[in-house]
Specification:
- The protein is α+β, with helices and mostly antiparallel strands and 281 residues long.
- The protein is built from four helices and 14 strands.
- The strands form three sheets. Strands 1-3-11-8-13 form a five-stranded mixed sheet, with no helix packed on it. Strands 4-12-7-14-5 form a five-stranded antiparallel sheet, with helices on both faces.
- β9 and β10 form a beta hairpin.
């Protein structure tokens, strides 16, 4: 049953309140360029050529039901749904303000986590991370997306492991994001993710990301009745695994942060880290 607590109600004012249960909330879906051209975006910090917009497509803000998987985590897995959850012990990494420290201390923890929990995984290569801190320049992303197109995923293998790419690409390759809060339990800006089985291929649109010296591709998503989920009150000892690419089974998970109308006034803003991994085998 979907529930919405309107802003300004008494329940919304309790600062320690953790929203639970299904909710109706808006997600930002893809709306195509009006001129029918190929969609593009210039990432933050990238010079934009004179006369061009930062991006040439827009958003369609649509209300959907987002189902809470708390208590039903075992029903979902990477092969079928392209997302899953894990409970872990406390992380040894406390300082997430230093990228060098994250790579030296947190990366090995994430690598072990994936090798121990992903069936068939023989090798893991971590290639990127995003830390979102209160007051930082990387706020939660509200636009529904998948981090890589299939072509971009294969290109990532060739970029980060060029000498081994041909051999590695002969077997199963996955890109899996490991997402966790840094100041859980999450009260505001929770992460929504769609069941891959309900996402139509025709809903997925490749978008050029035009950097200064290269062009990458991500996927934007049109709403076509896919089914949405979130994990209420996720804590610091819990992890969401988001599979963006799977060369064997094809699973890919659209995801986005959303504004929960039940979030308490005065509740803490979410901080988080996501680490992106190539998983071989």
């Amino acid at each position: 049953m979907s529930t919405v607590v309107p802003p300004g109600t008494e329940a919304n004012q309790e600062p320690s309140r953790i929203p639970r249960g299904n909710v109706i909330a808006e997600l930002k879906f893809y709306a195509p360029p009006v001129d029918g051209s190929k969609p593009f975006n210039y990432p933050d910090g990238t010079p934009i050529p004179k006369g061009l917009p930062k991006r040439n497509f827009s958003d369609a803000d649509l209300a959907v039901t987002i189902h809470d998987i708390r208590g039903q985590e075992s029903l979902y897995n990477l092969d079928d749904n392209a997302f899953s959850t894990l409970e872990t012990g406390p992380s040894t990494q406390i300082d997430f303000t230093s990228d060098d420290s994250v790579k030296a201390n947190y990366y090995p923890e994430v690598e072990r986590l994936l090798l121990e929990n992903i069936p068939g995984a023989k090798r893991v290569h971590l290639f990127d991370n995003t830390v979102r801190l209160i007051g930082g320049n990387r706020p939660p992303v509200l636009r529904v997306h998948i981090d890589q197109t299939p072509a971009a995923a294969i290109g990532r293998v060739r970029t980060v492991l060029p000498d081994e790419a041909d051999e590695l690409l002969k077997s199963r390759v996955r890109i899996i994001n490991v997402w966790r809060p840094l100041n859980g339990p999450v009260q505001c800006s929770p992460l929504a993710f769609a069941d891959s089985r309900t996402v139509r291929d025709e809903a997925l649109v490749a978008v050029e990301h035009r950097y200064a010296h290269r062009t990458g591709e991500t996927i934007s998503v049109q709403h076509m009745d896919e089914k949405w989920y979130y994990w209420s009150g996720i804590g610091n000892d819990e992890r969401i695994l988001l599979q963006c690419f799977d060369s064997e089974k094809g699973g890919r998970v659209p995801h986005a942060a959303f504004v929960d109308p039940r979030s308490p006034a005065g509740g803490k803003q979410r901080e988080s880290i996501e680490v992106r991994a190539l998983v071989f085998g």
